[in-house]
């Protein structure tokens, strides 16, 4: 099982400068490799250059430019070339399948924020000074960097990555570890219904409130963006304004992740089987189609209302939460079942009657056939649980 650890580093001023130079030089290598591939394709022969050919040129590049390319790890530069190769492979895959292709772009130094070392011990060494009381990581061309290791690393370190977030530097370890012991059986099951008013409602009548971190920080972010619009491009003041906006967004992201981790921990600890709706979040957040009229104008299509709904869906972070829930359930030996969301909020749990009239208003469910009344989100969670158990029983052993 591959597990990731992310630790904050404490580099010195000189090490921070060296890390920035490492990202800059890897960015130059990425852009040069992309340019070479574009030039080869635009040639009348339409030649194709692969990763193997570009990797074979690295030795000559390092010898020609020892000050910039020669001082960094050879394997990390190969990883950067593989990163470009994956981007182009994904581009052609999307183009063949009819999706939006998204051709790889040239990266500026400000937008190239990570470098990967494919193997611990090759250009990098995790905790290379075990006799020291302070955890350190050694990077070729940078030196020994102090790491704030807030938890123990269990398993064999496979890859090491350096990532820049604002003015902070992080070390990300991909560790191969044995599957942990599953948690003791809880003896209960639950269905959850994700929403906006309540982050989730469970089939036992419980609710988890939606913290709405993005909405709470919206005023500060808007003020910071207005201040940015008044700054002159290229000025020091504008650069500080950009950093302030990025810092606000990072805080919201960390708050959202923290809430998702805590909510998933509670579910995994208390239940053996967790059923949830298989939501197609990207489709749910699509903008409504325009409605042209005969006179050349456009009729109202509810785009402004839908935009507000899309912001609320993005702020809730359902996709991040479900990914974390599945990862934690796998480690704990729990079972997570995704079921189709069709009619889960319209089906009566008492008599099974399904009609849109059962839920005329958002918070209340009232069956028009038998008169059963309940909280609408709880009804949806109960139907999700029943659908999950039916799917579980239908699966072959």
Describe, in plain words, how this protein is organized in 3D.
The protein has helices spanning 13-42, 51-56, 58-64, 74-97, 213-216, 218-229, 236-270, 281-284, 303-316, 318-332, 376-394, and strands spanning 2-10, 114-117, 124-126, 136-139, 143-148, 156-165, 168-176, 189-194, 198-202, 207-209, 273-277, 291-292, 298-299, 335-339, 364-366, 373-375. It is α+β, with helices and mostly antiparallel strands. It folds into two domains: 2-176, no CATH class; 189-212 and 247-394, Nucleotidyltransferase, domain 5 (2-Layer Sandwich), CATH 3.30.420. The strands form four sheets. A seven-stranded antiparallel beta sheet has the order 2-6-7-1-5-4-3. It is globular, with a radius of gyration of 26 Å. The model has no long low-confidence stretch (mean pLDDT 92).
What class would the helix/strand composition place it in? alpha+beta
Q: Largest sheet, described in full?
A: 7 strands, antiparallel
For the largest beta sheet, what order do the strands appear in spatially?
Answer: 2-6-7-1-5-4-3
The DSSP helix count reads: 11
Strand content: 15-25%
> What's the total count of β strands?
16
Q: End-to-end span in angstroms?
A: 24 Å
Order of helices and strands: EHHHHEEEEEEEEEHHHEHEEHHEEEH
Radius of gyration based on Cα positions: 26 Å
Parts with pLDDT < 50 across at least 5 consecutive residues: none
